[in-house]
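User: Before I run my own analysis I want an independent prediction to cross-check against. Here's the chain; please return only the C-alpha cells and, at the end, one sentence I can use as a sanity check.
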Amino acid sequence: MKTITIPLILVAVVSVAGCGNTTGARVGTGAAMGLATGAVIGSLSAEAGAGALIGAGVGALGGYLVDEHKKGNL
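Assistant: C-alpha cells:
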C-alpha cells in the first residue's frame, strides 16, 4: 500500500502546487498542500510532525518557484 500511496500523493501535490494568481496565494497553496502531504507521508513512518514541517517548507518553495516561472523570471 505504501508504494502506491506516496507516488499518488506526490502527483496530486505537484498538480496543484501553483494554484493562485498572486505570489502569496501560490506560496500559501504550496505550503498547505506540502503540509498535508508531509503529514501523510510522515505518518507512514510515525513522524507526522516532522513530515508536515518539511512538507510545508518544500511546498512553499515550490509555490514560489512556480510563481517566478509564471512571471518569466526563471
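Sanity check: The mean pLDDT is 80.
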